[in-house]
Amino acid sequence: MSRADRGGAIAAEQAVVDRAHVRREELLGGLRGSLAELSAGAADAEPRARLLRRRLDELEGAEDGLVFGRLDGLDGTVRHLGRVGIPADDGGAGSEPLVVDWRAPAARPFYTATALDPQGQARRRHIRTERRRVVGVDDEPLDPSAQDGDLVGEGALLHALAQRRTGRMGTAVATLQREQDAIVRAAADGALVVQGGPGTGKTLVALHRVAYLLFTHPQLAERGVLVIGPSSRFLDHVGQVLPALGETQVVATTCDRLLPGVAVQRTEERVVAEIKGRALWQAALTAYVDAVTPRASALRLTFDGEEYELPERRVAVALRAARSDGRSYHSARRYFVEQVHDALADAVADRAEELLARAEEGFEDVLARVDAGLARADDRGAHLGVRGSDVDGVLSEDDVELLRHRIARDRGVAAALATWWPRLDPAALLRRLLGDGHLLCRFAPGLGADDVAALVRQPEGWSSGDIPLLDALTDLLGDETPRPLGAFTAGRAAARRDWVYGHVVVDEAQELSAMQWLMLVRRCPTRSFTVVGDIDQTGAPHPHTDWADALRPAFGRRWRPAHLTICYRTPREVMALTGQVLERAGSRNRPPRAVRTTGIEPWRRTCGDEALADVAGATVRTLRARYAGGTVGVITAPGRLAELRAAVDDDVPVLTSEAAKGLEFDATVVVDPDGITARPRGWNALYVALTRCTQELAVLTPTGPGGR
Predict the structure, then answer these.
(1) Which of 358, 360, 434, 538 is the most buried (most CB within 10 A)?
(2) What gap in Å lies between CA 139 and CA 119, rounded to an integer?
(3) Residue 145's pLDDT band (boundaries 50, 70, 90)?
(4) How far is CA 20 from the centre of its chain?
């Protein structure tokens, strides 16, 4: 395309972008007016307001990149694509939209058409904008004579990849590739597990899939989507993606923060974390709760100063009914208490009727004697004529119902039932179990003696490994007073342990233990999951080296695999180093194929251990100057964090490999690779560290006492 042609194309697309923004402002004004006019008392006011606010959020978040692409069909049809759909000015039901939503079926060829499979398209155009100004176009002919390569929209993609990193992930609706788009648009039923090496776009694919699913399955928005990430830093890194796509029906958190009101207070040894993550705990905790549930026995209660005894047989019937249907401990207790209230009301009514009957019999005897005396005194034989039916002792249904209410409010009855079937605190119950070797041996027979010894000597405070155990126990016990869930809001769902989501996304999923997986399944029993990760980047203490083992406790075989095979982020020069690292890590996977080059070879410097921090600081300063406006990250072994943080500016992230997962930088400085590999799963950790950069990699290796 000549300079003149390019200028004309930019001007033509600018006119489309301007028109789209004018129409967007009109739509925003209409939505705000509709919200203001809603009658609070109307029956459909709340659901209508939710729909209006969601569309409002979608349009407000779409200012940047409102229009990013164009498809020219072989039949002459021209469609412009954008972050959200913008209807035409005339608003006709059958009219072509001004901007097609990237998630709509009509937009799919933009991501999947190739020269060999043009899918009815003649040309694909990427439109680059800065705010509302068109700054460039990239045309890609889609005819069989054009060269068919690895990338869709190669120019636009490479331009995006070359941009400086800001520390916040952006959207990729304009540059999604074929294999990525296939995963984004995959069916929502069941669990989809995406294996992808570093730089393959796993996180972007997962987040764009959320936006796609909420667009194509609006019912998911009614329950919301849960997004699980590995760390708070990671969630901050990706936090703008979904809002930029107009999606707010999402709760983003970590496994450690998933249980409301409970916070991780300490770290623990890897061996203990591995023990607590085993799947055996689900059965162990179930048996533990079963053991503390009361067994049938006669139940003695006092009401209105009278003592009553419910026989063991009747208690057993109520207990069996209460524990049926998979009720939790407290749910079963509530049912049992209601049954006891009914039984006690029957007993009180029976006793009252019995006393009244006896009183009536005695009263009739007295009256008979009076009548006889009067007859003797009065030769007319007059008598009172009172009969038993006039003093009927049977209680009415209303009387019995009032009696039940009195029993339910009686403090003495409540205290007796609280003693017989106590309310339990899950935190206290878990502490008791983990601190008692005899209980552990009884309820978790799969633990070895060393496992039990390691558990009982743990200090106070919750660890990351305790959270799934506490969540499982809390679920088994249930809530003492259940509350209705209500309509979805992110704040409401995040504050509820028992919220059931429509879909769950798990990033860096290779790190999760069996108990963490079970914790997530409780929040989405339909098992509608999108799982993304790289089994070769696993740093967690669990022993799994493939997805089948990792997912078996929660999903069995009910999941389907998908693969991302192309590395877009990490340059070829860096990926060339990873083959031997993966081999040392015991990987059975093929590393992703890098499709871009920077011309900058990774470089290594060796220095004395005592000078390592100073050299690292100088290296960071050099790289920050070279990548001004971008980001530089330092990755090292845990034992070197303090000295390296002191050597660089406060805004330079100095991280372990575990903390760096999912993050990316323009340049990365890996300090003390031998120190990284010396730890458990150290070669996996080094693989993570080496693959965080988009442009340049520096490796600093110490010599002397602290290095090799």
Answers:
(1) 538
(2) 17
(3) low
(4) 35
Side-by-side strand order, sheet with 133-141: 100-101, 78-82, 69-73, 121-130, 133-141
* 673-678, long-range: CB < 8 A, 24+ apart: 673/699, 673/701, 674/701, 674/707, 674/708, 675/636, 675/637, 675/639, 675/640, 675/706, 675/707, 676/635, 676/636, 676/637, 677/584, 678/637
Strand 225-228 versus strand 250-253 pairing type: parallel
Averaged pLDDT for residues 605-630: 96
Evaluate whether 585 touches 683 at the Cβ level (below 8 Å): yes
pLDDT, mean over the chain? 88
Helix (H) / strand (E) containing 360: helix 329-377
Q: d(Cα 132, Cα 455) in Å, to the nearest integer? A: 59
Q: At a CB cut-off of 8 Å and minimum separation 6, what does 198 contact?
A: 534, 537, 567, 569, 570, 592, 687, 688, 691, 692
Q: Which residues of 387-406 are buried (b: 16+ CB within 10 A; e: fewer)?
A: eeeeeeeebeeeeeeebbee
Q: Which two tokens stand for residue 442?
A: 């009884």
Q: Three-state DSSP class for 689? A: helix
Q: Where in the chain is the domain with CATH 3.40.50.300?
A: 572-703
DSSP code of residue 651: T
The string of pLDDT tens digits covering residues 296-325 is 999 999 999 999 999 999 999 999 999 988
- 40 has which bridge partners? none
The closest of 430, 422, 439 to 472, measured between CA atoms, is 430
Instruction: Classify residue 585 by its DSSP letter.
Output: T
CA distance 17 to 387: 97
Task: For residues 683 and 538, give the distance between their C-alpha atoms in angstroms, rounded to a whole number.
Answer: 10
Kindly state the DSSP code that residue 380 receives in the 8-state scheme: T
Q: How many CB atoms lie within 10 A of CB 449?
A: 9
Phi/psi of residue 699, each to 5°? -125, 125
Tokens of 424: 């339990």
Where does the pLDDT of residue 480 fall: very low under 50, low under 70, confident under 90, or very high at 90 and above? confident
- Who contacts 372 (Cβ-Cβ below 8 Å, separation ≥6)? none
Kindly report each contact of residues 397-402 with a partner whose C-beta sits within 8 Å and lies 24 or more positions away, as own/partner: 399/349, 400/345, 400/349
Count CB neighbours of 370 within 10 A.
Answer: 13
Say which amino acid occupies 484.
P
Q: What is the dihedral of CA 178, 184, 186, 187, to 10 degrees?
A: -160
Q: Report how far residue 285's alpha carbon sits from residue 76's, in angstroms, rounded to the nearest whole number.
A: 65
Range name among 221-225, 280-284, 387-391 with the lowest pLDDT average? 387-391
Structure tokens at 489: 């809001």
Q: Are 55 and 121 in contact (CB under 8 A)?
A: no
3-state helix, strand, coil in the chain (%, to 5): 50, 15, 35
Specify the DSSP element, H or E, that contains 101.
Answer: strand 100-101
CA gap 631, 131 in Å, rounded:
22
Q: Which two tokens stand for residue 3?
A: 């300079």
Helices and strands of the chain, counted as H and E runs: 29, 20
**How many CB atoms neighbour CB 146 within 10 A?**
14
**How far from 178 is each of 117, 196, 631, CA to CA, in Å?**
12, 14, 29
Buried b (16+ CB within 10 A) or exposed e, 5-20: eeeebbeebbebbebb
In the structure encoding, which two tokens stand for residue 279, read together? 């799947």
Secondary-structure class of domain 572-703 per CATH: alpha beta
Pairing of strands 69-73, 78-82: antiparallel
Amino acid at 641: L
